[in-house]
Specification:
The complex is a heterodimer of chains A (83) and B (309). Chain A is an all-alpha fold and 83 residues long. Chain A has one domain (7-69). In chain A, 63% of the residues lie in helices and 0% in strands. Chain A has 2 helices and no strands. Chain A has helices at residues 14-30, 35-69. In chain A, α1 packs antiparallel against α2. The two termini of chain A are 28 Å apart. With 309 residues, chain B is of the alpha/beta class. Chain B has a single domain, classed as Histone deacetylase domain (Arginase, Chain A). In chain B, β9, α8 (260-277) and β10 form a beta-alpha-beta unit. In chain B, the strands form 2 sheets. An 8-stranded parallel β-sheet of chain B has the order 2-1-5-10-9-6-7-8, with helices on both faces. Chain B starts with a strand and ends with a helix. The chains are: A mainly alpha (83), B alpha/beta (309). The A-B interface holds A 1, 25, 28-39, 42-43, 45-46 and B 20-21, 80-82, 125, 132-134, 164, 167, 188-193, 212, 252-255.
């Protein structure tokens, strides 16, 4: 039911996404979320987790690209297709 | 011997805000599902109202009277973000608890083999002195304590397969070595309790959390490897089921993927333990379940299993 409710998440920078995710985890663990909203908040947390994982994957790929392409020295950060 | 179906029309008069998932139509959907031919042998009875003293077996009398006094003359009184009362709520709550208590009396007297109590408001989130999560009195817990006090049941078990953890039942039985509380539920989810390491003072609390997305295979694994072995070790003389059907895949309030056949399977497994240790005595009390079709079909599968004995 919340499939389209988290469209903004795919544009969040890593810092914002992880900050909101941490806040959601804390609220769920403390039981401070109303029953009716609990599943929606959990699903937003899932969307945030996926966003963070995607950004981390991209960052790892970029680091790897630099490592592989440099012959001793970094040569830049050209985009890498990681699909 | 027969299976008892305990209901009362007063439970339809517990009204909740517009759009609230815990709504009177839940009971109507179950009632319709149990009208079919295969349910014609159910012994249908009306739930009596519990006395305040009986409810006080699990909740302080001050709490019981505070709930009574919170009943609005008209409109709704909001008790927390999820939980509210309408003018008909107090009677509904008395009959929800009373239905479970009556079912215990009938089953222990041997007048029925087992029972399903289709009432609302639900109960398993109600802590010792705190209403929450759509719940006012802890019906299943009151039924278990009543069985102990009035019928000399030494060990009662409350097994809860509602998708939410029964924090209230856990709270009530935390220090009680004579009642086992076992639960499968989704984590993380409301109310946030129910981790494996929450075991009670006497190791009689048994939590088997499931992960979002888990379905029948994981549910059955949790039952087979955690809940049932502990239940057999405990050797209960009565099993009360907190029967929530919101772990169904259609349910809007959670992310588990159980099917009707999983509820039927779980019911049969609990009946097998009851047959061995508890003379078959099972009293099942409705908790959650918010997709009307998933709820009705699952409750029907559950009751059909109870009848098959």
């Amino acid at each position: 039911m919340a499939d389209n409710d988290h469209a903004d998440v795919v544009r969040l920078p890593f810092e914002r996404a992880i900050e909101e995710l941490e806040s959601i985890v804390k609220r769920l663990e403390e039981g401070k979320v109303p029953l009716e909203e609990s599943v929606l908040i959990y699903e937003r947390g899932e969307a945030l987790k996926r966003r963070c994982e995607e950004l981390l994957r991209l960052a790892e790929a970029r680091v790897e690209k630099i490592t592989l392409d440099s012959s001793g020295k970094p040569i830049g950060t050209e985009p890498l297709d990681v699909k | 011997m027969t299976t008892l179906l305990v209901t009362h029309s007063a439970c339809l008069n517990h009204l909740t805000p517009a759009g609230h998932p815990e709504r009177p139509d839940r009971l109507r959907a179950i009632e319709r599902a149990l009208e079919g031919e295969r349910f014609q042998n159910l012994a249908r009875v009306e739930a009596p109202a519990a006395s305040l003293e009986t409810i006080a077996l699990c909740h302080p009398m001050d709490y019981v009277t505070a709930i009574r006094d919170a009943t609005p003359q008209n409109g709704l009184a909001q008790l927390d973000a999820d939980t509210s009362m309408s003018p008909g709520s107090f009677e509904a709550a008395l009959r929800a608890a009373g239905g479970a208590v009556f079912a215990v009396d009938e089953v222990i007297a041997g007048k029925a083999r087992n029972a399903f109590v289709a009432t609302r408001p639900p109960g398993h989130h109600t802590e010792i002195a705190r209403p929450m999560g759509f719940c006012l009195f802890n019906n299943a817990a009151v039924a278990a304590r009543h069985a102990q006090k009035e019928h000399g049941i030494a060990r009662a078990a409350v097994i809860d397969f509602d998708v939410h953890h029964g924090n209230g039942s856990q709270d009530i039985f935390w220090s009680d070595a004579t009642v086992m509380y076992g639960s499968t539920h989704q984590m993380p989810l409301y109310p946030g309790t129910g981790a494996k390491n929450e075991r009670g003072e006497h190791d009689t609390i048994v939590n088997a959390p499931l992960r979002p997305g888990d379905g029948g295979v994981k549910f059955r694994e949790a039952f087979e490897s955690v809940i049932l072995p502990r239940l057999r070790d405990f050797a209960p003389e009565l099993i009360v089921i907190s029967a929530g059907f919101d772990a169904h895949m259609r349910d809007p309030l959670a992310n588990l993927n159980l099917l009707e056949s999983d509820f039927e399977w779980g019911t049969r497994k609990l009946m097998e333990v009851a047959d061995k240790y508890a003379q078959g005595r099972v009293v099942s009390v409705l908790e959650g379940g918010y997709d009307l079709q998933g709820l009705a079909n699952s409750a029907a599968a559950h009751v059909a299993a109870l009848m098959q004995g």
